[in-house]
Structures are given as C-alpha cells and as structure tokens.
Amino acid sequence: MGPTLGFENRVQSQNTLRRCLSVLLLAGVLPFTMLRARTGAQPLRLAQESGFTLEGKVTQKTEGKLTVSTEENIIFHVRYDEKTDIRLKDGAQGSDKDLKAGLKVRVEGELSESGEISAHKIEVL
Question: 55 or 19: whose pLDDT is higher?
Fold first, then answer.
C-alpha cells in the first residue's frame, strides 16, 4: 500500500499543477510564451540571473520609460535610469539617447507585481 500511495500522490500533485497553470494561462496571468519549449529565439522568458527577460519592439519612449511590444502583442512598460546598462548592436556602451521608437530590444530586469519592468540591461538588437 505504501509505494502505490506515494505514486498516486505524485500523479495527483502533477495533475493539480497542470490545472493551476491552465487557470493562470486562461486568466492571462501567466503568458503562454513563458511555458513554451525553447525553440530558436524566445521573446519572453524568466532569466535566472536577472529575474525577467523579454524581446520586442519599442513602440513609445518617454523620459525613463519605454513601451515594448513582443511578437505576441504583449505590451510591457519598461523603466530605466542612469544605472541601466544600455548596449548597442555592436556591444558598445549606449545611452538613453540611443533608444527610440521602432528599435528591437532585449530587456533584462525585474518584473513588478504591477507588470512594469525595472530594467538592469537594455540591448539594441
């Protein structure tokens, strides 16, 4: 009875996890792309060292803030400041003056509960 009960508990736990993830996906809390298997370029993923990473096109720029749209049309608001490492296509150091609407970027940072990203690094792609 012991080994069978352990197996049943594991199966039940896996099923519960799948149901929870499905609910989060349907509710729009957890973007599908975060669960997708890695195939080629991945526009949106959790990054181990920096918390959150996304790729997309800058649709708007204001002082200290970018609006970035991913390929899946998910909109993110990205905050940056003088501590943010901004890199150009060739890897050279950039500045906020190099950031403008229309550019494709990769952002690494921290995702807040409000959905805003505090950028540690912005790379122009």
Answer: 55
